[in-house]
Design brief:
The protein is α/β, with parallel strands linked by helices and 231 residues long. Helix content is 44%, strand content 14%. The chain has a six-stranded mixed β-sheet.
């Protein structure tokens, strides 16, 4: 069977004017991941990535750390949903970064406060009742992620080790697709995915299965501990 390694991007720039940009920590995470994969003896035969900047930056750092010279094939189906739109439809005042920051600063745990609001925003998006308010509905996002995964499965030739640099949302959809999970459980998966973690799927012409999910063992020991982040 062949393997697809779904790699979440490194830490991006949350609460900044440009989220789609790796932080200095995110850049180090990508290179550290590549070095860890090389140490495990993993070599990619094909590489794919979403079209977002954080995907490209993570791919570049990881491949550098591996000493891999392959160039990623871009598949927009692996792009993350627009989290700014999702949160703004739930709390319109959150569309302004300053207003959001001011609201969160009033809470003893701003990250937890944001998490609560974002979970509510995701539920609103998934329920379908307000589909007309979103540029991309949950159902469309879900389907395009599955389509991108199937494209990799059937268009990678003889490649046996395939990397996909993406985001938490598409990785959750891909995992849920393999396990036949409900939309609610798919959404729950995304909260646990660590920056620059690896989820591995095995596939052949007849089936696709989950080998492991959200492996971040490369950040559990030594200097890697300082690179462990969720967001």
């Amino acid at each position: 069977m062949a393997a697809i390694y779904l790699i979440r991007h490194g830490q991006a720039s949350l609460h900044s004017d440009n989220y789609d940009q790796l932080s200095p920590t995110g850049e180090r995470q990508a290179v550290a991941l590549g070095a860890a994969l090389k140490q495990r003896g993993i070599q990619f035969d094909a590489v794919y990535a979403g079209s977002m900047k954080r995907h490209a930056q993570t791919a570049a750092g990881c491949l550098q750390g591996m000493g891999c010279e392959l160039e990623p094939t871009i598949l927009e189906g692996f792009n993350e949903y627009d989290h700014e739109e999702v949160i703004a439809r739930h709390r319109p005042e959150f569309g302004d970064h300053l207003s959001r920051a001011e609201y969160l600063s009033k809470h003893p745990n701003p990250n937890k406060a944001f998490q609560i609001e974002f979970e509510l925003a995701l539920h609103r998006w998934r329920m379908g009742e307000y589909d007309h308010e979103y540029f991309e509905t949950w159902q469309h996002f879900n389907q395009r992620c599955k389509d991108a995964l199937e494209h990799v499965r059937y268009n990678s030739g003889n490649a046996k080790s395939i990397a996909v640099f993406s985001s938490g949302g598409p990785i959750s959809v891909a995992t849920g697709h393999c396990l036949e999970l409900s939309d609610e459980h798919v959404a729950e998966l995304s909260w646990s995915i660590i920056n620059c973690s690896v989820t591995c799927l095995l596939f052949n012409s007849k089936k696709m299965t989950l080998r492991y999910f959200n492996d971040y063992s490369h950040f559990e020991y030594g200097e890697g501990k300082s690179l462990f982040t969720y967001r």
